[in-house]
Amino acid sequence: MARTLINAPRTARKGDVMEIRTLIAHPMETGYRAGADGRTLPRDIIRRFACRYNNELVFSADLYPAISANPYLAFQVVADASGTLTFTWEGDNGFAQTESATITVS
Amino acid sequence: MNHHDLPPPSRRIVLAAAVAIGLPVLWRPAQAMSDVLTGVLNTFTGGAPTREGKVHFDIAPLVENGNTVPVTVTVESPMSADNHVQALAIFNEKNPQREVVACKLTPRMGKANVSTRIRLATSQQLVAVAKMSDGSCWTHTVDVVVTLAACIE
After folding, report:
1. Which of the four CATH numbers 2.60.40.10, 3.40.250.10, 3.30.420.40, 2.20.25.90 does domain A4-29+47-105 have?
2. At CB < 8 A and 24+ separation, what contacts does B123-127 make?
């Protein structure tokens, strides 16, 4: 399990635009770099990120090797109901991770 | 032969002179999009015309470390059900791969504002493009100078 850092408000007022910031520990090996033995290191990146709000897709992104190591993504979501935000990362070599954050909307 | 009456300069000569004088100015207008990026944009938009505007691509013009370059793309859009940004992408000119990131946005985001950190292999041109729900495509092109390049992407 890779370490993740998720910054989302715990409470919000209905209609507020919340800023969500996510970070996941991952080398994002590009597949273009040479290793110590001179051979090209195989690609190992996170290819897809998705954020769901009460199981409805809100934001998704396809990532490419030009994304820095430990991919950081920040975006906005409108608070409309209490529930959970689910974050999923999927990538090479079967990488898959899901994290969630609960939010109370008043 | 009478050489007193020289013919007036022909239209061709006048035009050639005008082009020769104007050329250095027209050669590389600021922010002119490179052919590489134009081609990639065409693929992304499916041939739809793109216009400069609405999109704001926030990146430092002088990048000290190409391994992690913070970028923010903001699009002017009400993000309502009938008028929102559907897709947002960043392309580069000189990394090994043209794509940087491609996002799908929904009206539930409230604001079209996405930040991430990218790698830049060398000084180059970048473009952010937004595809709206009405089918129009808007771009913002930026030139960046990279002093320390990323380890090949």
Report:
1. 2.60.40.10
2. B123/B94, B124/B92, B124/B93, B124/B94, B124/B95, B125/B33, B125/B34, B125/B37, B125/B92, B125/B93, B126/B57, B126/B59, B126/B90, B126/B91, B126/B92, B126/B93, B126/B100, B127/B33, B127/B37, B127/B40, B127/B41, B127/B57, B127/B90, B127/B91
